[in-house]
Amino acid sequence: MPSEASQTNPNEPAQLSSAALGQILAFQQNEVTEAVVYRRIAACTKEEGNRSTLLRIADEEARHAEIWQRYTGQTMKPERGKVARYSLIARVFGFTFAVKLMERGEAKAQVSYEELAREVPEALDIRADEEAHEHALLDILDEERLGYVGSMVLGMNDALVEMTGTLAGLTLAMQNTRLIALSGLITGIAATLSMASSEYLSSKTEGRSDALKSAAYTGVTYLVTVTLLILPYLLFDEAHYLWALGTMICIVLLILVVFNYYLSVAQDLSFKKRFGQMAGISLGVAALSFVIGIVVKMFLGVDV
Q: Which of 87, 137, 197, 221 is the most exposed place for a label (fewest CB within 10 A)?
């Protein structure tokens, strides 16, 4: 329970220092906005359990905003830009990623809570409430797409390793972006069908009822990755195969950054460790295949 002094302060905001009042206003604005974000995301969530959890978190945020309002004496409207931004992120990347990304911003405010507690002891009560309730609620969110992360990792990682190696080797062997793109596309489509069917058979063997969906996640992720890697060879003219190779490597790194950042937020995993492992494997295979391409071209005397 807040102390007697903290109960009187809300009716006397002028007694707070300007720094404390400014911090409370920032907290109030944040809570008001996030309450709307949670409700907006909940409205687009089909599964009843997840929708109920999101609405409970929204109610917690609204309650905290009301507490801060007693100190400031001001009524605030949600930030439209932030609401629209996180609503869009939820639609594209899933609600788990969106809400955990949003809550990461609150984690940075822990020092501010400590400083504010010198004038407003109730600040520590609110922080403890958030840690005990909101974070616990976030942990029970169960989004379907996160259940297939393993399938997505399988599809993306295989595509990165196989196609960076294939395209790097073909680059030196063929030295023609159109031929490289054609060969890579045929290889990529065949590999996509192979990966998807293998995932389906593997899941069926394990007795999983979602074998088809698991295979679809693997296949689609593989195909999207292959398309992105081949794209530079379609954009550059035939003679600029090394530019296409360099661009392809940049796309590999970008894919790894985006995907591993997504996993680090949605599943609370280490970004640096996973990124380092996947980047090392993909780029290592590409470098080795590049050398193999040189050797094969030189010893076989093939000149395309």
A: 197
Verify that 134 and 193 share a domain, yes or no: no
According to DSSP, residue 4 is labeled: H
Average pLDDT, the chain: 79
Give the pLDDT confidence score for residue 288 in this predicted structure. Answer: 79
* Secondary structure percentages of the chain, helix, strand, coil, to 5: 85, 0, 15
Looking at the structure of the chain, the number of domains it has is 2
> How far is Cα 196 from Cα 217, in angstroms, rounded to an integer?
8
Task: Tell the residue number behind the tokens 């709307």, with chain if given.
Answer: 36
Residues 39/58, Cβ–Cβ less than 8 Å? yes
Ranges assigned E (strand) in the chain: none
Q: How far apart are CA 179 and CA 190, in angstroms?
A: 17
SS3 239: coil
Give the span between the Cα atoms of 212 and 209, in whole angstroms.
8
- Tell me the two tokens of residue 291: 């050398």
d(CA 275, CA 263): 10
Angle at 128 between CA 125 and CA 134, to 5 degrees: 120
Given 93, 122, 142, the domain boundary residue is: 142
